[in-house]
Structures are given as structure tokens and as C-alpha cells.
Amino acid sequence: MTTTNTDTKVGSGYLESLQKPANKNSGSTGQAGSALGKDAFLQLLVTQMKNQNPLDPQDNGEFVAQLAQFSSLEGIQSLKESVDGILTGVGSSQALQATSLVGRSVIVATDKSVVDTTKSFNGQVVVPSNISEGKVTIKNKDGNVVKTIDLGAQKAGTADFIWDGTNEKGEKVDPGTYTFSAETTVDGKAKTLSTLLPAKVNSVSFQNGSEMMLDLAGIGKVGISKVTTIGI
């Protein structure tokens, strides 16, 4: 079986935007939340002015400093409201983008995939460094080995492999969910390699401040961060 070697695919700007959830729990907003409210600040300032000693009134410089502090407080609260508005908009944009993923295929870091054995299946193996040999083992839902694909020597990057949907005897096997495991030998010891496989997006779920989750056919829920390519 012929294999080719390609560089690791990086998600597009669209994918990266989905992989960065909007988070309203930033440090700056947390500091603003703990500050004295402007109404309480004004009430405290007025009370202080009413109760000051008329024979020894408050120094003008000190009063100006307090007004400056109030102005700063107003600015912080205004900034917090602006940031919250921006984050809300970002979250809404991500939600809109996420709906477009439903029904599409993605390449994801996983060891399982739903395979239509009536046509060729394309997968990838992550190769962290140059290897002299490697192989991909395919098992059915019962854990029985269906086929082994030889990768041969590969350079660092991602090695593509193709399965024609047949077993070792050349017979077509039934469509369904199959498990793929890849390994190589380093210094006489077996080393497991990660696989990147296609999957169809059934649905998308997300919560503010947490990673978007994709429900993938035959796999289940997977974080968007594990997706390397969208729209194949």
C-alpha cells in the first residue's frame, strides 16, 4: 500500500476562532467587580462633606483626589461594560459559526472512525520524528484484526494511508466503526503513534467560558481543540 508524507495540517483562522471560547471571567473584570460601587462612593463622599468640621474643612487637594478616584471608578465600570459587550458578541459569533459545522466532516485526533467500506478510506499518522518503518493496524468492533497497512519509512510530519475496505484476504468487509492503531519501532522497542481520522459532525454543544464540544458519528463528544481540519 503506497503512503505519502505531508506536513501536519494546521487549522485555518476559522478553526482557530472556534477553538478560542469567549471568556467573561477575565482578571480585569474581576477587579472591577470587587471595587466600590459608584452610588456607594457618591453617598460616602456626600456624607463626608456634610459631617466635616466647618472650622477645619477638607483640603481642596484631598477633595480633588477623591473626585479623580471617582472618575477612575466610572472609567473602570464603563470599560467592564464594553468588554462584556464585546465578549457577548464574540460568543454569539462562535455559536453562529458552530452551527455550520453540523453535517460536515472534520479530521480529528482519534483512534476510531465510521468507515464506508464501499470506497477508499483516508487517514493520517502523526510522525514526531523520522522513522525507518511503521504500520497501521485496523480492528473491527469485536477487536479482531481486519488488516495491517505498512507505512514504510517516513519523515517527521504526517503520513497518509489509504484503506480499500478489504481484509487480509482481499475481501470487502462490512461498513461500520473501526479502530486504528499505529506504531513504529525505536531502539528495538514498539512506540505508539497518534492517528488523525475523518468523522462527521452530528451536533455542537458549548457553554460560555468552556471549550466547544462536537458530537462526532461513531466517536462521541470531542473538544474542538482536537480538530485539525474542517470541511473535507
What does this structure look like?
This protein has 232 residues and is an alpha+beta fold. It has helices at 13-18, 27-34, 38-50, 60-99, and strands at 4-6, 105-109, 112-115, 121-127, 134-139, 145-150, 157-163, 176-186, 189-193, 195-205, 213-216, 220-223, 227-230. Residues 4-11 and 26-35 have low confidence and may be disordered. The protein has four helices and 13 strands. It is elongated and about 95 Å long. Strands 1, 2, 4, 7, 10, 11, 12 and 13 form an eight-stranded antiparallel beta sheet that branches. It has two domains: 4-13 and 103-230, Immunoglobulin-like, CATH 2.60.40; 16-99. Helix 2 (27-34) crosses helix 4. This is Basal-body rod modification protein FlgD. Required for flagellar hook formation. May act as a scaffolding protein. InterPro entries: FlgD, FlgD/Vpr_Ig-like, FLgD_Tudor. Residues 1-32 are annotated as: Disordered. Residues 20-32 have a biased composition (Polar residues).
In oligomeric terms, what are we looking at? single chain
Tell me the radius of gyration. Answer: 29 Å
The helix content, as a percent range, equals 25-40%
CATH topology of the largest domain: Immunoglobulin-like
Largest sheet: 8 strands, antiparallel
Could you say which overall geometry the principal axes of the C-alpha atoms support? Answer: elongated
Question: Structural class given helices, strands, pairing?
Answer: alpha+beta
Task: Tell me the number of structural domains.
Answer: 2
> Termini distance?
22 Å
Number of extended strands: 13
**Beta-strand content:** 25-35%
Low-confidence stretches: 4-11, 26-35
Total number of helical segments?
4
**Nearest-integer average pLDDT:** 77
Determine and state the CATH class of the largest domain.
Answer: Mainly Beta
CATH architecture of the largest domain: Sandwich
Order of helices and strands: EHHHHEEEEEEEEEEEE
Domain FlgD Tudor-like: 93-228
Family: Belongs to the FlgD family.
Organism: Pseudomonas mosselii
Domain FlgD/Vpr Ig-like: 115-185
